[in-house]
Amino acid sequence: MVRVAIVGTGGIAGSCHIPALAAQAHRAEVVAAVDVDEGRVKAFCAEYAVPAAYTSLEEMLEAERPDLVHICTPPFLHAAQVVACLRAGAWVWCEKPLCLSLAEYDAIAAAEGAAGPYSSVVFQHRFGSGARHLRELVAGGALGRPLVALCTTTWFRDHDYFAVPWRGKWDTEGGGPTMGHGIHQMDLMLSVLGEWEEVRAMAGRLDRDTEAEDVSMAIVRFANGAMASVVNSLLSRREESYLRFDFADATVELSHLYGYRNADWTSTSPLWQPGEDVPSSHTAQLADLLDAFERGERPPVSGPEARGTLELVAGLYASALTGRPVTRAELTPDSPFHHQMNGGMAL
Fold this sequence. Notes:
The protein has 347 residues and is of the alpha/beta class. The protein has 2 domains: 2-124, NAD(P)-binding Rossmann-like Domain (Rossmann fold), CATH 3.40.50; 125-281 and 298-339, Dihydrodipicolinate Reductase, domain 2 (2-Layer Sandwich). The chain has helices at residues 11-23, 38-48, 57-64, 75-87, 102-111, 129-139, 170-173, 177-180, 183-193, 282-295, 303-322, 336-339; strands at residues 2-7, 28-34, 52-54, 68-71, 91-94, 119-121, 146-156, 196-204, 215-222, 227-233, 235-247, 251-256, 265-267, 326-327. The longest helix is centred in the C-terminal third of the chain and has 20 residues, at 303-322. The radius of gyration is 20 Å and the shape is globular. 50% of the residues are buried.
């Protein structure tokens, strides 16, 4: 059995991670939970029959020696907690964003071992049957070469949402909807279209009292020549997560909100037959992560693969804040946007 610990016992831990772990109860068991709020972690452990409650990550790592740690804390805590777990010999599955900068990402990568432990980020939309089927068709050339894409995350969060002290701030959330919300759709887009090369973007704070943006828009050029339009908003009353891929021989579309099933996909191609209906979910991704753990292999959405998504976010912010096109090759340690998503600039 894989010994699992959960760090952070807020809403996402109970609503997404516990059900995912329950589906893998034949090979994974939750042995401990951690939260700085003693009352909350004890209530969580009582509700979900978790044997041990801790208020210190370090004490838990020393006492329990878990194989895998789920990080469900606010974004500004992720990097240090992920590194601590890796150094203790535990694999890590962390809620997005894995960290707040490319520099932090590189520090996490340096803490991994050549053969593990590894860290992986929660990007569950890659793991539904529709996305898997689309990538298979693209890899086989069945849809023709990719040409145009639309990637839209138009959600709504009211003013009270940002009353939580860490939200909407560069130092604690890493940005606005680009980093904290639309990153899921952008990651799915990248998993289909591959590496990006150039981004031209704008970002604005149109209505919410935040440091970072509440809207961003971008045009992205990919290494294969395809071009994409990206919109991220928290001001949109009719909420939608939408992706459209136009290939030389077919169009494939996905419209959903926080998760999809096969019925949420449409295509002009007669080859579109995703088969078994596996929803995009923490449950689907955790199955793949545990498969990799059992094989001793790097899990999906980790290492260079996951870094590419964070690079796109950094590039988008760099373009929006400097007012010029930004290439992926520019995001080296010499760039201020390597060390902070806003490059130290105010929006």
